[in-house]
Specification:
Number of strands: 0
Number of helices: 4
Shape: rod-shaped
Distance between the termini: 83 Å
Radius of gyration: 29 Å
Strand content: under 5%
Number of domains: 2
CATH class of the largest domain: Mainly Alpha
Largest sheet: none
Helix content: over 70%
């Protein structure tokens, strides 16, 4: 028998059904053809990670801030290099205008 892979949205849907408690875990298991122990595991995981949803400083925000900092440094470096090249090219530009 091959293992089935379930999407995260499907797992969330099943876990939410189990959390609501409208039907028993056995009913949910037979409805979705999943072992009841798997439903209990998904439910426990959902409940344990639920507090992370409401955290203000999520991991994605700090990752985005770090990426912005790297890009700002790169823009600064390219600006300095551009200014340097403009200044060093100025004498050559004047000579070409004379001809």
């Amino acid at each position: 028998m091959t293992r089935r892979k379930h999407s995260s949205s499907f797992k969330a849907q099943v876990a939410l059904e189990a959390i609501r408690g409208d039907s028993t875990v056995a009913e949910i298991a037979s409805k979705h053809q999943i072992h009841p122990g798997q439903i209990q595991a998904w439910k426990a995981e959902a409940l344990s990670k639920l507090s992370h949803v409401f955290e203000k400083d999520s991991g994605q925000g700090s990752c985005a801030d770090a990426q912005v900092a790297v890009l700002e440094r790169k823009v600064g470096q390219l600006t300095v290099e551009n200014d340097f090249l403009k200044k060093s090219w100025a004498p050559y530009a004047k000579r070409s205008d004379v001809r």
